[in-house]
Amino acid sequence: xxxxxxxxxxxxxxxxxxKFDNSLAGSIVxxxxxNYDASRAIWNGMIDRKPACIVKCANVEDVVAAVNFGRNHQxxxxxxxxxxxxxxxxxxxDGMVIDLTNMKGIEVNPRTxxxxxxxxxxxxxxxxxxxxxxxxxxxxxxxxxxxxxxxxGGGVGWLMGKYGATCDNLLSAELVTAEGQILKASPEENPDxxxxxxxxxxxxxxxxxxxxxxxxxGTIIGGMxxxxxxxxxxxxxxxxxxxxxxPDELTAYAFTMTSPEGMQMAGIALCYCGDDLDEGxxxxxxxxxxxxxxxxxIGPMPYLQQQSMLDATVPHxxxxxxxxxxxxxLSDEAIEIFKTQAPLVSSPRTMVLIEHHHxxxxxxxxxxxxxxxxxxxxxxxxxxxxxxxxxxxxxxxWTRDFFEAMKPFFSAGVYVNTLFNDEGxxxxxxAYGDNYDRLREIKRKxxxxxLFRWNNNIIP
Length: 460
Ligand SMILES: Cc1cc2nc3c(=O)[nH]c(=O)nc-3n(C[C@H](O)[C@H](O)[C@H](O)COP(=O)(O)OP(=O)(O)OC[C@H]3O[C@@H](n4cnc5c(N)ncnc54)[C@H](O)[C@@H]3O)c2cc1C
Description:
CATH class of the largest domain: Alpha Beta
Bound molecules: flavin-adenine dinucleotide
Radius of gyration: 22 Å
Strand content: 15-25%
Number of helices: 15
Distance between the termini: 15 Å
């Protein structure tokens, strides 16, 4: 989506900035500040936006002050949690970035199996704190992804078959509204808002704390098997049968990638989080026998090891372009197209995923939370990555061509957190699905002037 860019209609003199800065426990970063470039850099190196001001919030009062300042000066407001959103909504041109990255508190209560975390926390930090108590919640598969944007968009991960989407485990949240009011959202307090923030993204306010239900997660069976790209058809057919028979405890993703040595590969990564590891080994045995694989990296491991397994493939600062959609099924025809397109990949850093969605995440009715993408068995995600700016056109074209070729197999839905910023209103509506009209009503109640519009926007 392309929201209109606005600079303040009121002059913001250096005295005004200074007074604002002095009122904060945190601090502001201006274009002339030494740390300006570092503060506006996010995961996707292709995003090169220059905000008028970045407010590094230290606490909830700072968030309130920033919201009031941005609103009163009619600034475009962007909100930065982990800064991992590929479309780059964490940073805007000319306006104000409300940067939550220093708000990193995490409190785990092992007795109630709950955790309260602030919005600057990343999944690696959250998992490390909860795993100290043998606990976890469905979270992102890369340690540097923020809990905030991921949870507000829905949240998929290795535990989703057993424990649902991340947002399904949200017990309550605290928000700062567009009017600068602090509100709680839970089943008891502002339930409409609680419904909306579980999938409706950052449209309704700035979340300053998330309370999660955790689950006992100890040693899991995780890792991946790798095959040569020539076997892609067999791998995907095997993956289809394997996932159709998988219990809720077993979640698997098929993928294609290129090895550091330049060899194109097709693989299957998985996580079995059941209590009985022997049972897990039996379930996974056919996967390890099939082929046989070039490499079998599957075995029992700490959950933290599984959660950091993909980190090296998606470093900060790479250029990235995404296209994704859910699939109605993984038919022979879809596999045939995949088999033709994947080996044509233009960048050796690019990955293509087919995530299996099943069990708890899909057992929730699509209108129970704003996150509505709960009926398709597979999510097709192209994550194009490269490091030479002049190559962008080639890699974006390959991504779009692959996406277009797969269109006959798409369901109506797309996961909001995989949308890029050039996709248009129809795609944003497709992400919210049949929940869009209800989300608009709630948006009209909590943010009628659309202060929080630099996102996959729900237009009030
Ligand atoms: C390498 C990589 C791996 C990923 N893996 C997964 C995965 O396994 N599972 C999955 O579900 N997704 C995954 N994602 C997608 C991820 O969910 C989104 O990128 C998500 O937006 C990241 O959240 P963030 O806080 O880091 O993002 P940011 O870029 O900081 O923010 C994203 C959006 O959320 C809004 N926002 C952020 N914080 C707040 C807040 N506190 N209050 C209100 N609005 C806020 C922002 O304004 C913005 O619109 C991955 C992304 C990348 C780049």
